[in-house]
């Protein structure tokens, strides 16, 4: 079974803090994604990567950056957390093109006070 | 107009009922269509892909109407365990790995 593991299920941070969300997948998938999910807005793509050291902006990249130094690991970084970044963050991975299934981690619920 | 639109529901139906969800998409060039299921406080999981000719998986039937740019999901003989949010997913921008767009989901509550 594919496993996508997100390092933290729940985090509480203060405005201005730097936040790291880690994601690891164990199926050698080349594609990895970070989404945020908010009520009424659904899942929105923040960043994605289809190779080591490659990254592309999604629909809402402002205030975020990412790092992919190894194929299995994709990190989301909030340089200076703000209250409007309080959300559920979901990491996903997939193999091949966009006709393939996305496998999601369990999510990281971030609260910024 | 949103790229992928769904009726948020909730749809409250009794066990055994048949229920149908629709999802409309804006880009007529879209090629890939999916339904994902998300249980409360869980991650989304693929329910089924949607093929041009329509496809069935047990009690679930998915259909695509390219002319009207919508996809549908029909659930027959609803079970309590079908209670979840159903997400419509479309590649709204043609080919490319970044192209999957999620609808905001339709919530289904099956009642005893």
Please provide a written account of the structure.
The complex is a heterodimer of chains A (113) and B (112). Chain A is mainly β. Helices cover 0% and strands 52% of the residues of chain A. Chain A is built from no helices and 11 strands. Chain A has strands at 4-6, 10-13, 19-25, 31-38, 42-49, 56-57, 65-70, 73-78, 87-94, 103-104, 108-112. The termini of chain A are far apart. Chain B is built from no helices and 11 strands. Chain B has strands at 4-6, 11-14, 19-25, 33-38, 45-49, 55-57, 60-65, 70-75, 84-91, 100-102, 106-111. Chain B is globular. The A-B interface holds A 31, 35, 40-45, 48, 50, 56, 58, 90, 94, 97-99, 101-102, 104-107 and B 4, 8, 31-32, 34, 36, 42-46, 49, 87, 91, 95-105.
Topology of helices and strands:
The complex is a heterodimer of chains A (113) and B (112).
Chain A: E1 4-6, E2 10-13, E3 19-25, E4 31-38, E5 42-49, E6 56-57, E7 65-70, E8 73-78, E9 87-94, E10 103-104, E11 108-112
Parallel strand pairs in A: 2-11
Antiparallel strand pairs in A: 1-3, 3-8, 4-5, 4-9, 5-6, 7-8, 9-10, 9-11
Chain B: E1 4-6, E2 11-14, E3 19-25, E4 33-38, E5 45-49, E6 55-57, E7 60-65, E8 70-75, E9 84-91, E10 100-102, E11 106-111
